[in-house]
Amino acid sequence: MTIDQTARVAIVAILVGLAPAFATPVQADQPETVMITLHAKPGAESSLARVIERHWETVRRLNMVTDAPHVTLRGTENRDKTYFVEIMTWRDASVPDNAPPEILALWKELNELVEPRNGQRGLDITEMAIVAR
């Protein structure tokens, strides 16, 4: 698969559901907490951080997320490869499946700034449960 084909596959995967196929199903009317891991392409770290910030501002403005704790973390792996982890809670599990064009455009931007790494997709989403606040 070429890089272009891989990017298209990643975008389609994000657009059709966001939650991994192996995740425990959540009822559509229940909040859904996710951990999003984004492996920044070399040189794209600052741009990716800005798009992550714009994404959070936009989902808040559009009332797509709850007031549950939100955090964005930045880390380094393999000594020089940057990645980000964002934890957020969708208002309900159906929200990402029905994302408006403004959000779809941001997801496209995010996918353009990440790369697969260590056997993981460039942008990986895992459903989580909040244990303590």
Descriptive account of the structure:
The protein is of the alpha+beta class and 133 residues long. It has one domain: 2-Layer Sandwich (Alpha-Beta Plaits). It has three helices and four strands, in the order H-E-H-E-E-H-E. It has a four-stranded antiparallel beta sheet with strand order 2-3-1-4, covered by helices on one side. Strand 2 and strand 3 form a beta hairpin. The longest helix is centred in the middle third of the chain and has 17 residues. The protein is globular. About 15% of the residues have low confidence.
Describe the structure concisely.
With 133 residues, this protein is of the alpha+beta class. It is 32% helix and 23% strand. It is globular.
**Which CATH first-tier class would you pick?**
Alpha Beta
* Terminal-residue CA separation: 42 Å
Q: Percent range for helical residues? A: 25-40%
Helix-strand pattern: HEHEEHE
Low-confidence stretches at least 5 residues in length (pLDDT < 50)? 5-24
The number of domains is 1
Q: What's the Cα radius of gyration?
A: 14 Å
Instruction: Provide a count of the helices.
Output: 3
Structural class: alpha+beta
Query: Could you say which overall geometry the principal axes of the C-alpha atoms support?
Result: globular
Task: Please state the second-level CATH architecture.
Answer: 2-Layer Sandwich
Biggest β-sheet: count, sense, barrel?
4 strands, antiparallel
Kindly report the CATH topology: Alpha-Beta Plaits
Strand order of the largest sheet: 2-3-1-4
Give the percentage of residues in beta strands.
15-25%
Q: Overall pLDDT, averaged?
A: 85
Number of strands: 4
